[in-house]
């Protein structure tokens, strides 16, 4: 991956600009495939890859959704080899890729490699300009190990911070210092804040993160004046809610971000700014997922490029919004390249979009032509049969916007290419559309 890093700036800059503006100048209509005209492959090789969300699509908490096991039995051959590239794209971020791969292998009863797993924080591997800075990390699980695995060398956790400055965390009376005031010890200057996922003690994390932002990375100092813009904040996972075993969705990291943003603004009068927002529906996340799909295709011995991606999810505001936004991004890249060819500027455009090919010698034609979204009804989104409208997709767009504050709401981006009951139906539909035998 090291050789790819210098060329990824184009991806981040363009993707971030597109995320913030969701510009209306790009095509908005959700692309659909006609079931009457499936594709057929004379060379015997498919040309598509699959992106699977996990929670609400494959599992509910620790319980696999019944359709998922059968689906994956059909996706592997007798030797356990996948028929098409498969990547699991989840906004979870409280573990290592190896751990998640082992969990999926056990739950789905097929072999899942860590190279097939993409957690919300996985693209941070490519933010190399932060790797040698002292960063405060927030989340749960093995956050230090996760940070080191992503390339960060100098890591401070919330627990380390509260131990160094024991007078900062006083909401819980049982955690307040007793009798004698404990000594403090200095930590290195904190240069950035990395938010991996929702923490366990929200009051502690909210207080200490705000302390760091208000003191410009020196939480042991008094706030003498407002430092704004504040030090960089990078957040992974923007899901407001997610689906576990409970009958209704649970708060996700997006809810924690809402709290942090509003606390900071209430105190300072200024908006909390993000250096980067990573995880679905970020374009950066889908760029990285496409790289993993391409690597899977190479491991399968495919000679032809992956032309289409199918993203299967249960959350219209994350999975569907993200897949459609990335599809818009792909269309924009193709239009930009076509316009440059007409104007004779192919060289400049090829250089500008080279970052999308992640260091490979190929032209911008290495990008897929489309990313199609498929919504399943086993998670955050569900169809109540007694209230089902004549158009089953009508309920998808008639919603309160649960996306992140920095995303301009575009209802067309919540409109899936297809709505199906579960993941098995989704995969069967994809193979039918592609004209490939599933069994």
From TrEMBL:
Example GO biological process term? glycerophospholipid biosynthetic process
Which InterPro entries does UniProt cross-reference here? Answer: CDP-alcohol_PTase-I, HAD-like_sf, HAD-SF_hydro_IIA, HAD-SF_hydro_IIA_CECR5, HAD_sf
One protein family per Pfam: Hydrolase_6
CC per GO annotation = mitochondrion
**Signal peptide (from-to):** none
Q: Does the keyword Signal apply?
A: yes
Q: What highest taxon heads this organism's lineage?
A: Eukaryota
- Write the record's keywords in alphabetical order, separated by commas: Signal
Looking up Gene3D superfamilies in the UniProt record yields: HAD superfamily/HAD-like
Recorded hits in PANTHER family, A to Z, give:
CDP-DIACYLGLYCEROL--GLYCEROL-3-PHOSPHATE 3-PHOSPHATIDYLTRANSFERASE-RELATED (PTHR14269), HALOACID DEHALOGENASE-LIKE HYDROLASE DOMAIN-CONTAINING 5 (PTHR14269:SF17)
UniProt family annotation: Belongs to the HAD-like hydrolase superfamily.
Q: What is this protein called?
A: Haloacid dehalogenase-like hydrolase domain-containing 5
């Amino acid at each position: 991956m090291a050789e790819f890093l210098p060329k990824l700036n184009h991806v981040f800059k363009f993707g971030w600009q597109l995320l913030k503006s969701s510009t209306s100048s790009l095509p908005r209509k959700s692309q659909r495939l006609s079931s009457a005209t499936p594709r057929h492959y004379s060379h015997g090789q498919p040309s598509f890859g699959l992106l699977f969300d996990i929670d609400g699509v494959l599992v509910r908490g620790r319980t696999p959704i019944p359709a998922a096991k059968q689906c994956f039995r059909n996706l592997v051959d007798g030797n356990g080899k996948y028929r098409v590239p498969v990547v699991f794209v989840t906004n979870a971020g409280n573990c290592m890729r190896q751990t998640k791969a082992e969990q999926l292998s056990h739950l789905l009863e097929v072999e899942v490699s860590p190279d097939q797993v993409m957690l919300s924080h996985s693209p941070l591997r490519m933010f190399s300009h932060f790797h040698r800075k002292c960063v405060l990390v927030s989340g749960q699980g093995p956050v230090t190990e996760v940070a080191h695995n992503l390339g960060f060398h100098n890591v401070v956790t919330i627990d380390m911070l509260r131990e160094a400055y024991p007078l900062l965390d006083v909401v819980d009376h049982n955690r307040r210092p007793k009798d004698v005031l404990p000594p403090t010890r200095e930590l290195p200057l904190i240069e950035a804040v990395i938010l991996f996922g929702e923490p366990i003690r929200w009051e502690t994390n909210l207080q200490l993160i705000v302390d760091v932002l208000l003191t410009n990375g020196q939480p042991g100092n008094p706030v003498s004046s407002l430092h704004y813009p504040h030090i960089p904040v990078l957040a992974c996972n923007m899901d407001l809610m997610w689906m576990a075993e409970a009958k209704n969705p649970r708060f996700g990291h997006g809810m924690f971000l809402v709290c942090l943003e509003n606390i900071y603004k209430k105190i300072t009068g200024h908006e909390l700014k993000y250096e980067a927002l990573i995880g679905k529906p970020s374009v950066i996340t889908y760029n990285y997922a496409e790289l993993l799909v391409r690597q899977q295709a190479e491991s399968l011995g495919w000679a032809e490029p992956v032309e289409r991606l199918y993203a299967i999810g249960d959350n219209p505001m994350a999975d569907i919004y993200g897949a459609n936004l990335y599809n818009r991004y792909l269309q924009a890249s193709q239009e930009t390249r076509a316009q440059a060819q007409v104007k004779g500027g192919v060289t400049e455009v090829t250089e500008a979009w080279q970052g999308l090919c992640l260091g490979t010698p190929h032209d911008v034609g290495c990008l897929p032509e489309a990313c199609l979204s498929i919504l399943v009804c086993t998670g955050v989104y569900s169809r109540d049969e007694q209230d089902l409208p004549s158009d089953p997709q009508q309920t998808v767009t008639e919603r309160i916007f649960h996306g992140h504050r920095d995303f301009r709401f575009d209802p067309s981006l919540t409109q899936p290419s297809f709505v199906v009951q579960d993941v098995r139906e989704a995969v069967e539909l994809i193979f039918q559309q592609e004209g490939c035998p599933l069994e």
